Amino acid sequence: MSRSPLCKPWEHTLTRRQLLGAAAGTAGTIGLGGLGGLVQPAVAEEMKQKEKQVLFMWIDGGMSQLESWDPKPNTQFGGPFRAIPTSVPGVHISELLPRSAKQMHHLAIVRSMCTQDNSHSAGVGRIQRGDPKNRGVTYPYFGSAVAKLMGPCERKLPPYVWVKPGSSGFIHQDAGFLGPKYGALAFGDGKPPENLLRPDTVSEADDAARQKLREAANRRYGELRRPLANDANSYVYDMAQTLMRRSDLFDTSQYDPRDVQRYGTHDLGRHTLQGLKMLEAGVRFVKVNSYGWDTHGDNFNGHLSLMDKFDQAFSAVVEDLADRGMLDHVLVIAMSEFGRTPRINGHVGRDHWPEAWSIAMAGTGLKRGVVAGATNDKGTFVDTDEYDIGHMFHTWFRCLDIDAFKVEYDNGGQPLPIAHDDMQPITAVLA
Fold first, then answer.
1. Residue 4: DSSP 8-state
2. What would the pLDDT profile of 370-381 be if each residue is shown by its tens digit?
3. Cβ distance 157 to 282 under 8 Å?
4. What whole-number distance in Å separates Cα of residue 229 and Cα of residue 226?
5. What's the pLDDT score for residue 18?
6. C-alpha–C-alpha distance, residues 95 and 101, integer Å
7. Per-position b or e across 108-127, b if 16+ CB within 10 A of its CB
């Protein structure tokens, strides 16, 4: 669904809207930054060490629910693959996910997604923005929303990073009306930005002096210019300074070779392992991408290859997060912009199908080992309550201790909901 914004991001100076109620409620809902003296220092320190984080695995192009989380073997549209038991009695998933089946006791699966857009151009944006009612502005992607509402973690690393194949850069478009400051910092192929490290010819003292000069110039420059653009420019420099001190995040030679093999030497495996390291280092929101899932032709051979890579990386990161106790404060989401058609086309492929598909999750705020919703016997349509992406945004915000019915964006005095105000969390998967 296309949108024509009625206002521009730089026309508004955004502030986080205060919750209705007491200051204690504000601190508990927004995050740890405003705790102040409301808790004892020891308790506050323990909470800071377990700040909530997100690992968002984006399967670009459309994973088939029938070859993953909602198999329908021996039916008209079921395809050639079997369903296998999991670590949760009575729950079966596709045989293409044997490793993930062993982690099912950590997972929460929603099988009754029913969304609207069946094109990539519309679906990718709508799904990652949560599609609130059309407010005349472009809403932020989920990563940008979390960066705005929760800010960086205590270690002040960039709040929203994107590990992906291809190019690097600052993806300001993800932030929508929030302004470019809340965009994604993309690491192409997991590599640091070019020229990140200070040249040997520049001393630490000279570099510090340069930074002070830059800050002064930025302040003067910003006095008569768009505040959001100037703030974003300064923010990128500040994040670069932080990353310079954490260049070890890009040194894959330090990884345990056994972990590299467990996650896989393919792009998704390498990037997911790096995403785990960034979560451990204190990044608030890590997005990891996998491309090439648009299987309009030769769907079954395509998924035979693609699912093996996903299964390897996804199961490894869920297992490691669980072993480290991190699932208590990390929310894991694995999803596409839609599913694939039950009907098989003339090219032995499956086309786009937003009417009935699945999402897999794990971690903080969620029940473990549960399946919510169901499709009919052929997998063509949802048989239970249908859930749109707005329901998922409510659910995810609840997992992160953000009440989407109380917290709002402030768009220059215009209050805007952070999630679709006609929808609600999926209580069946919430702890």
1. -
2. 999 999 999 999
3. yes
4. 6
5. 32
6. 8
7. bbbbbbbbebbebebbbbbb
- Nearest residue to 132 via CA among 419, 425, 426, 424: 419
Phi, psi of 221 (to 5 degrees): -60, -40
Whole-number Å distance between alpha carbons of 308 and 302: 10
The amino acid at 45 = E
Nearest C-alpha neighbor of 76 from the set 350, 342, 297, 351: 342
Instruction: Please state at what angle helix 204-222 crosses helix 227-245, rounded to 10 degrees.
Output: 170
Residue type present at position 278: M
What is the residue-wise DSSP string for 181-196? GGSEEEEETTPPPTT-
Which tens digits make up the pLDDT trace of 174-202? 999 998 889 999 999 998 877 666 777 87
d(CA 324, CA 303): 31
Q: What is the pTM of this model?
A: 0.85
Per DSSP, which regions of 224-355 are E strands? 285-290, 330-335, 339-340, 352-353
Domains and CATH numbers, the chain: 9-194+246-429 (3.40.720.10)
Q: What is the pLDDT of residues 79-133, one digit of tens each?
A: 999 999 999 999 999 999 999 999 999 999 999 999 988 999 999 999 999 988 7
